[in-house]
Amino acid sequence: MTDLTRADEPKFDLHMHSTASDGALSPTELVVKAAEASIRYLALTDHDTLAGLSEAHMAAREHGIHFIPGIELTCLWHKRSIHLLGLGIDPDFVGWQEYEARLVALREKRAETIATKLIAKRAPADILVRAQEQAGKGQIGRPHFARALLEAGVVSSENEAFDRYLGQGKVGDVKAEWPDVAEAIAIVQASGGKAMLAHPTKYKLTFSRLRLLLAALAEAGADGFEIAYPGISQEQIGLLLRVADTLDMQVSSGSDFHNPAHQWTGLGRFPRVETPRHIIHQIRSDVQA
């Protein structure tokens, strides 16, 4: 597979997070960092919120970056939590306000449950308040609890917090009644966006089970899935390319950037994949039209 971004083509990154959800940088700081990395096509995809899009769009305009409004929706497939990217959505679509309010309520309820379970494991009694302070005005999530546990001296790193308390199957891995994936696909597309499954190889599914998920998403009308992101192997990319061909789906790429301290997920850092199915071709074409 050759480099999708040739020397004469601007860099892009279609998956990143700001302080509007669980990222470490404000939307403006994120755009500035993207400009420093020579990124010219950028999608902000915060978890379950549109709150950072306006600020990021203004900053992108100042830095000559083509901005793609996005979101990363938490949803369910057969009771399993998965993430759906919405790329190129209209943030002013009338349905978003009610949908986002539902997600905020679900996250707040889940945070209270996480706090109760962590306190039972001898976390500080004010762990919820500490996590809320870490979240600020953003959507509260497990990374904020990880930072709160670190601040409280319960763990020595955020990674340890996930390994001991917050990772899959741990006490703080609390499930919520997220919307079904079909509903998430519907609102993304109703608002003019492309519905793409985020990081498909990170759900700890066998490849046969992953194929079932992707086929189900195709049947539900999803546009495609992410094919290149940190941690994916060339073998996995090849397998996913064949699935995209079989299901006639588009693909996307992104760093899933959260924090400049996480060197393995730097902005614009992910494998480059040559395929006409990549959504970046349509994005570039729309910009040039």
UniProtKB/TrEMBL annotation:
One family from Pfam that matches here is PHP
Cite a single GO MF annotation.
5'-3' RNA exonuclease activity
Record SUPFAM superfamilies: PHP domain-like
Q: Where is the Polymerase/histidinol phosphatase N-terminal domain?
A: 12-77
Annotated CDD domains: PHP_HisPPase_AMP
Signal peptide annotation? none
- Family matches, as InterPro entries: PHP_dom, PHP_domain, Pol/His_phosphatase_N, Pol/histidinol_Pase-like
Protein name according to UniProt? Polymerase/histidinol phosphatase N-terminal domain-containing protein
